[in-house]
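User: Show me an example of a complex going from sequences to structure tokens.

Assistant: Sure. Here are the input components:
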Amino acid sequence: MTLNRRTILKAGAAAAALPLLGSRAFAQGEPLKVGFIYVGTINDNGYNYAHNQGRIFLEEQLGDLVETTYVENVPEGPDCERVLRELAQQGNKLIFATSFGFGDSVMKVAQQFPDVKFEHATGYQKADNVGLYNARFYEGRAVCGTIAGHLSKTGKLAYIGSFPIPEVVMGINALALSARKVNPAITVKPVYISTWNDPAKEADAARALIDQGVDIIAQHTDGPAALQVAQERGIIGGFGQGADMSAFAPETQLTSIIDHWGPRYVASAQALIDGTWTAGDTWEGLKEDVVQIGPYGPKVTEEVKAAAEAVRTGQIDGSFHIFTGPIKDNTGTERVAAGVTMTDAELLSMDWYVEGVEQPA
Amino acid sequence: MEIIIPIIVTLVFAATPILLAALGELVVEKSGVLNLGVEGMMLVGAIAGFAGQFYTGNPYFALLCGAMAGAATAIIFGFLTLSLSANQTATGLALTIFGTGFSALAGAPFSARPIQLMGPLFPAELASHPALRVVFGYSAPVYFSFFMVFAVWYFLEKTRPGLILRAVGENDLSAHSIGYSVKLVRYLAVLFGGAMAGIAGACFPLLLTPQWAERMTAGRGWIAVALVVFASWRPFRLLAGAYLFGLVMTMELYAKAGGGVLSVIPSELWAALPYLATIIVLVLISIKRDASTNAPACLGKPFLPTN
């Protein structure tokens, strides 16, 4: 579409009429154009791959009602602003910015395009036309921890993390808490490698950890490198992160945490089509199917599977929350009293480790 | 103490691709050409090596694919800088950008497809004892890198073609005036550098982690370029430098993961060590005057004969 004053006026008029016309505005005319921007490549087999799967899910579910565009490998910074503006000018009425660092650019561009709705993943800044969404990955970590607690022989688990941000700390703590519910002697060793994507370094970190007697490794980086080393060295196992990674470690992947953004994207697009969209702030998990547990690996026995399923279904029906007290930190101080569940705000600013997690070097 | 052997084995694997790429770059620079496209050539080598292993399952063929892809990428650089006299620095940087993008495009169908890791060269019985693992526990490219250190040294110091290559790098106009083809020598050096960078790149999916991931060399091509300066254009110093970097990269992770003796040195210090070591070496080089003059005189300058 060429951009001239007339098309801008048309777009503006359509947007102004939107609340009055409701669902008919799109059902009878043009499909709703939805844009996505990703910080990495859709072939990373992890975080960005999962968002793109969500986009494909949206197209499958809503069919002709939507038309999607994506831009991958968008660096966080001035380029992001340019891409967002371009997507808005091309007529996208709903834009998903899928990385934390896009936040400032989203706020700026959203001001210039009040008739375009933006949704920002894992962010914290809202506006009338900027909503937020995130997923409770820690619920999946709790399921993984239960399996690790049952299967570990050495009692030593490891966690390869990118950076010590609350998102990652929360995952380490959820894994440790649930593993120690099964076996209170278990310890978790976190190692931060200061990058999201350096497969050779991830692999070397896994080797270093295995040489220290760790027999189950979880990771919060973008790829399957750690899992491959676990398979190569024949330790008990590891977990897929973001996507099912069993192709890389068929015997060693115990299960995986799958990001399933599709339902979130469908809900937002449908709301906009129906004229009911408001700037939301969602943090969904297993219950909403935004976090999924992948297939269980061959080493997970029926008994362990049942225990893992109990944790999974407990979190779905609300009877179980991994961050319910009593919880002590790794210096022995009680942080959460018995029966109290941490609030979302507390979780999102978590910067301490639970009992059993070794303080990272 | 038994942790020392796994550390050595891990560091040798970590150092090998850096050493191979740096050896190639050393020969290129000795001929008077500065190719900053090592990272890009490594990435093209990595995807070619991955594809070779994926389709044939023969790791030696995969390494050959890596070498040929690296050399083919280097030809682009050679044509632009040697035949068209383009600026070497800018062309090298562009080559890295090209290699990154091209490898991502070529690698797209291979995401989420695992391959077989290249096994050790010697039979497992030889490496059964931990101490013997330090000697016999590696795959072929590791031994090849040792051999190439010696071969590059021998070629440059002891052979006539090596002497010609150095002459071209030190004074291209003189070499040209006594009848040597500067362009031919430099083309061959650039091709060799590309092939070595390609093999180095192929080591990532074949030796380190059996998958294709975009930008999986993660900046190690730049370490290789820096190492050539660090080693003041001497092959055996390059060997020492590559292993020093490998040691530091590996020890950082073992210090973070381990306990006991290793945690005495904080991991932050391990992370800072490469920079400290670089500063110390640069100081030592400037004290020893002969070493500071070891850079090829024509490095980075286009060859423009007047006649």
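The lines above are the inputs; the final block is the predicted structure for all two components together. Chain A has twelve helices and 14 strands.
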